[in-house]
């Protein structure tokens, strides 16, 4: 499939969804959370925020590899024929204070109602550098869109 078509599918899916499932791990045990997210137009980065006292914060600080799932399911039979989901594999890092305003602005543009949460001194913004998107449609059609060949996160 053409790269531009894949990008359009991803942008369309992510623009319509405000929440995603973030998966982290510690000691081999997966841990998933529903998270508000934002993304850069080039699809190379996602932005999430969490409190510094949370398990997901500790997990990302201990092992930066993450998986994020975004989908458009409606919880009915049509999902087996029409739903699209993407699993995003990448690496999460706390946002560098020197560029925090840029990512914070992207996040708040998408989620202005979270301004007090973002302003809290205990909230940490993370930028996720995307390596792969695995796009699943019609329940079984899978296409991989690789952003960055530096690491193969599937192994």
UniProtKB/TrEMBL annotation:
<protein>
    <submittedName>
        <fullName>Pyridoxamine 5'-phosphate oxidase</fullName>
    </submittedName>
</protein>
<dbReference type="InterPro" id="IPR011576">
    <property type="entry name" value="Pyridox_Oxase_N"/>
</dbReference>
<dbReference type="InterPro" id="IPR012349">
    <property type="entry name" value="Split_barrel_FMN-bd"/>
</dbReference>
<feature type="domain" description="Pyridoxamine 5'-phosphate oxidase N-terminal">
    <location>
        <begin position="10"/>
        <end position="132"/>
    </location>
</feature>
<dbReference type="Pfam" id="PF01243">
    <property type="entry name" value="PNPOx_N"/>
</dbReference>
